[in-house]
Amino acid sequence: MIDFNRISSVIMDMDGVLWRGDQPLAGIHDLFAFLHARAIPFALATNNSRMTPADYVEKLAKMGVAGIEERQIVTSGTATAAYVTRRYPYRSVIHVVGGDGLRKLITDAGFEITGEVDPRVVAVVVGIDFALTYDKLKKASLCVRAGADFIATNTDATFPTPDGLVPGAGSIVAALQTATGKSPISMGKPGRAMFDAALESLGISVERTLMIGDRLDTDIAGAAEVGMQTALVLTGVTSPAEAEKANIQADSTFTGLPALLAVWKATV
Ligand SMILES: [Mg+2]
Fold this sequence. Notes:
Layout: E1 9-12, E2 19-20, E3 23-24, H1 28-37, E4 42-46, H2 53-62, E5 73-75, H3 76-87, E6 93-97, H4 100-108, E7 112-114, E8 121-126, H5 134-145, E9 149-152, E10 158-161, E11 164-167, H6 169-180, E12 185-186, H7 192-202, E13 209-213, H8 216-226, E14 229-233, H9 240-245, E15 252-254, H10 257-267
Parallel strand pairs: 1-4, 1-13, 4-5, 6-7, 6-8, 8-9, 9-12, 13-14, 14-15
Antiparallel strand pairs: 2-3, 10-11
The structure holds magnesium ion.
Residues 13, 15-17, 214-215, 236 line the site of magnesium ion.
């Protein structure tokens, strides 16, 4: 059980917690009003690298959530950009298989991007790429085989769409892993890079920070591993039946944000 009296900051996943696709979920406005009223700092963390923090600020504003700042948003793309910035000299060449959002973050961090086989390539960064081709996989594979580091934004096998579950970045990463015989370093949840980036921006101790997520295997498992308290909401990927029989358990499970807020407000 979560002791809400001990919670001083929050990290939230977005898809399946705040919205599903373009549909805001119940409780989204009450949640932000509550956090603002109590001056509780928060960060928003997503494995999705397709959109930039600026895109998320805009998406939230369209849903009636104003005043979110870009620095409050951590994506597997921003975590990747932070990681390569720490690891490689300014202006190094990075081979990217991914979308425009990811490419922009890495360019803005001061790196030269290529999609070619280039001996200067220090790392191959792989995220979701809706324009994936055999040629792209081939070139990325040759770079990794030539000794470049292999970095995945995340290893989510799928993501939910109105058509059903479709291949995620992890499916592309798996193809490259098979082709090269090498395993990537992954930046996304459940890895700790994203939690570290979010916790750093909050500046609150990890045990006083609550993770709200909809996936047991990424949000909850990763947050528990770094020592956060965890709340699962059943409005996204993990179904009530899966939550009941899973090996990983959140500290508390709620049907959605309204139920979580009701308990939190009653406690404090
Ligand atoms: Mg989610």
